[in-house]
Amino acid sequence: MARQFSVRRQTGFTAIAMMCFFALYLPIAVLVVYAFNAGTSLNTWEGFSLQWFVKAFENQQVIEASIRSLQIAVVAALVATAAATMAALATTRTEPYRGLTLKYAFINQPLMIPEIVTAVALLIFFSRIKVWTGYSGLGYLIAAHTAFCIPFAYLPIRARLENMDLTLERAAADLYATPWKTFRYVTLPLLWPGILAGLMLAFVISLDDVVITEFVKSAGQDTLPTYMLGQLRRAITPEMNAISTLFLLLSICIVTVFFFVNKKRI
Amino acid sequence: MSEAAEVIEAEARRDVRNRWLLSMPALLIILLAAAGPLLIVVVYSFLTPGPYGDVQWQPTLSGWVNVFLERDIFDETLSLADAHVSIFMRSVWLSLVTTVLTLLVGFPTAYFIATRPDNSRELWLFLITIPFWTNLLIRTFAILQIIRNEGLINTIMIKLGLFASPVQMLFTDGAILTGMVYVYLPLMVLPLYASMEKLDFRLLEAGYDLYATPFQVLRRIIVPLVKPGIIAGSILVFIPALGAYVTPSILGGGKNLMLGNLIELQFGQGRNWPLGAALSITLMLIVMVALLFYVRNAKGAGGRHG
Amino acid sequence: MKRIKTTLALAAALLASTGLAHAEGVLNIYNWGNYTSPEMIKKFEDQYKVKVTITDYDSNDTALAKVRQGGSGFDMVVPSQNYIPIWISEGLLLETDPGKMENFKNIADVWKDPEFDPGRKYTVPWAMGIVGTVVNTDVYNGDVNTWGIIFDTPAELKGKVNVVPEMNDVIDAAVLYNGGTKCTGDLTILKKVRDTLVKAKPDWVAMEYGTIEKMGSGDFSASSDWNGSAFRQRLANPKIKFGYPKEGFVNWSDNLAVLKDAANVENAKLFLNFMMDPENAGMNSSFHRYANGIAGSEAFMPADMKDAPEINIPAEFASKGVPSQTCPPEVQELYTKIWTELQK
């Protein structure tokens, strides 16, 4: 044999894959590099500077939108994960029962309907409620975010549960542990990595949302993504690069944690 | 019925009831803030548009008629709603092309990752996951900066002397397409990888033993085996692409609309909520058809569940 | 158990903190994008200890639709004068009587009793300007004082022209270009208008609001635009020139008003009065670069505004301006239909 033959080899695949990774990261790299540009230009390097980061931190709108995004994401992710955990416990490790398929369909519904359709529905529905109740606070955004976060939180939790059999729980019950104690000291610790993964996934999904937030938000309720959408359509400055860079950093931190939590299978 | 059986049955009923109680919070939240309001959209699609947006509570079919037909402003003749139909066609076309392109790029990429040795495979997988977790808006912005008139591509091409002056790439269908391929690519690679990871490479060996060419191995062995991944990836790309709003609104310049933008327009400048509602439901129906297609084919592919 | 309790307590605290945005001393303004001086807002916040939020819109119709659906939570809005009668007749504005406020005396005489808001019962001037064209003369060196830039795009500009998607601006321009008068209901003219627009659209690159930055970056080489926006573009790139279309152009004004369902009426009234102060109005003009209708505000504007060609209409074009006004409903309905047809 002239050279080592591998059954796995397909001509050109490696080249395409390399180009793919290059194309995936090049735009992001350019975006990050120009966040540090001293000038306002996006195509000529005028020296290193942190001025755009300073500007972003001095921009009251950016700070407020960021805080609002985090508030919504934390609350929505916590509530969604709690609801998803219960739903996952209720839909796994059981014989099929009436309504189980319906439950699956319902829980995954936000994944199947295009976001714009849900956004339109919520715009109509919430605007009526806003008029009736006179309340136009963040509650609507939190409710909407919680709803579309549930299926994302549900996925890893359910996957984890399906890999856990009931032996340990049964043993605990045989030892006269109450259902709560069984859950608290047996199920929950085993399920924890799944819940953590679900929580992080829900958090990121909420943090990233543009469309539903754009339609549902009331006065002064811009989140960081909707603020950025407005800026991208109206007035782009390198400040946007700086904000994006920070946002990217946060996402990468979360993925890294997620990746290692998920890999560490017990 | 024996007493023991009765106890077991009562226990089972209690279990099902508890399971319903446990799933209630999730079901209620989704009913209230996602699924339920869809019914209101259906109702609104049959109402009369108000003069400056919103609706009047008079039932009419005009919202639905407007989806496909339009009345000429000047001679009152009814004709095919060219504007809407062309936007529908464009959306479906752009989404299909996006799906095909992501498949063409995503397939070799996923295969590349799946054939790495165990220790480096994690790293490649990690690299494809990062963009997946990164804000879609930021990724669209990154593309915007690359393709605009003073962006990287034009700057380099002009420096190399290949372009005499900046070539308009932003605000074209090509820009939307580039953006969507870029943004949705990870959605194609991940399910493809998931099914390739389970690929039994001894089958390839058997193929080569029978003097198959690499291309035959690819076409006759690999592709059929990873078909569930191909279908799942295609659905995961096609559905969000069809309803895309952010990418076309940033890269399309408000002139090259897709369905998502057309719908949004009806709730703002267009002042026609019933039409917007009818368009939303139409979009939902197309997605349902795509999903049914998926369910059918996923079953037909032999239900390889890992 | 303890950890769960801490988590719950934390979640409750977070939930509570999300309610803080609705504390007292807030003012929610809904305004055109890139149109409000941050320094001026800062001054108002410091002076009255009120927290101001600004939310952007990019067309009169969007603002009207969003507020009309109810529960928007906004306190103030800045509609154009041709939309103000609609806002009033739809019952969306609160009668705050700025005409009786302390600073009303500062409003220039011509703006004290406008047709769209007789006696200034609802509104206070924000800015006034002109709808014209803007061209990068590096790309096209011909006559910029014509709507032909938009509707019969010269070869150099084909595929490089943007149109700001403000319905009435675009249709008025096409009406004037076809020799009609503003608010015409003449069907032969309107048919020409529709055909002009449909024929011109393939030559446009985009229909976007954000011209200031995109003209500067070369993504657009020409656009329909407002004079203050053109002024800001010229400051960034001296080659950018504002055109006064010889076929006629519309003079408009945008006016600040309080919404009927405003939650912070007192703060809104403070802001109305604040905006009629020459120093504050001048500060705002230094940002958006339009005139503002407040006498004496020029003293607080940068020197380059005094002789700017965008602000001072050249004598030869002075007679070409027509005031913006609300068209009769049946005409407006035709305009909306033409506009819808254009949104392909």
UniProtKB/TrEMBL annotation, chain A:
* First and last residue of the signal peptide: none
- Membrane topology of the entry: Multi-pass membrane protein
Subcellular location(s): the record lists: Cell inner membrane; Cell membrane
Keywords on this record?
Answer: Cell inner membrane, Cell membrane, Membrane, Transmembrane, Transmembrane helix, Transport
Q: Name one GO biological process term.
A: transmembrane transport
Q: Which GO terms describe its cellular component?
A: plasma membrane
Q: Does the keyword Transcription regulation apply?
A: no
Annotated membrane-spanning segments are 12-36, 70-90, 111-129, 135-155, 185-207, 242-261
Q: Name one Pfam family in it.
A: BPD_transp_1
Coiled-coil stretches noted in the UniProt entry, renumbered to this chain: none
Residue limits of the ABC transmembrane type-1 domain? Answer: 66-258
Q: Do you know which InterPro entries this protein is assigned to?
A: Bact_Polyamine_Transport, MetI-like, MetI-like_sf
Highest taxon of the lineage: Bacteria
Q: Which protein family is named in the record?
A: Belongs to the binding-protein-dependent transport system permease family. CysTW subfamily.
Q: What is the protein's known function?
A: Required for the activity of the bacterial periplasmic transport system of putrescine and spermidine.
In its UniProt entry, what is this protein called? Answer: Spermidine/putrescine transport system permease protein PotC
Q: Which organism is it from?
A: Pararhizobium antarcticum
UniProtKB/TrEMBL annotation, chain B:
Q: Establish whether keyword Transport is in the entry.
A: yes
Q: Name one GO cellular component term.
A: plasma membrane
Topology relative to the lipid bilayer, per the entry, is: Multi-pass membrane protein
Swiss-Prot/TrEMBL GO biological process terms? transmembrane transport
Residue ranges of the ABC transmembrane type-1 domain?
Answer: 88-294
User: Can you say where in the cell this protein is located?
Assistant: Cell membrane
The record's annotation in InterPro entries points to: MetI-like (IPR000515), MetI-like_sf (IPR035906)
Name the UniProt key words of this record, in alphabetical order.
Cell membrane, Membrane, Transmembrane, Transmembrane helix, Transport
Q: Does the keyword Thylakoid apply?
A: no
TM ranges are: 20-47, 92-114, 123-147, 167-194, 229-253, 273-295
Q: Which PANTHER family is this protein grouped with? A: INNER MEMBRANE ABC TRANSPORTER PERMEASE PROTEIN YDCU-RELATED (PTHR42929:SF1), INNER MEMBRANE ABC TRANSPORTER PERMEASE PROTEIN YDCU-RELATED-RELATED (PTHR42929)
The family line of this record is: Belongs to the binding-protein-dependent transport system permease family. CysTW subfamily.
Protein name as annotated: ABC transporter permease
Instruction: Give the organism the record lists.
Output: Pararhizobium antarcticum
TrEMBL record, chain C:
- On whether Nucleotide-binding is a keyword of this UniProt record, the answer is no
GO biological process terms on file: polyamine transport
Protein localization = Periplasm
Keyword Transport attached: yes
Among Pfam families, the record links this protein to: SBP_bac_8
GO MF annotation: an example: polyamine binding
Instruction: Show which residues constitute the signal peptide.
Output: 1-23
The record's keywords, sorted A to Z, are: Periplasm, Signal, Transport
The record's comment on protein family reads: Belongs to the bacterial solute-binding protein PotD/PotF family.
For this protein, the record's PANTHER family field holds:
NORSPERMIDINE SENSOR (PTHR30222:SF12), SPERMIDINE/PUTRESCINE-BINDING PERIPLASMIC PROTEIN (PTHR30222)
Function per UniProt: Required for the activity of the bacterial periplasmic transport system of putrescine.
Q: What is this protein called?
A: Putrescine-binding periplasmic protein
* Source organism of this protein record: Pararhizobium antarcticum
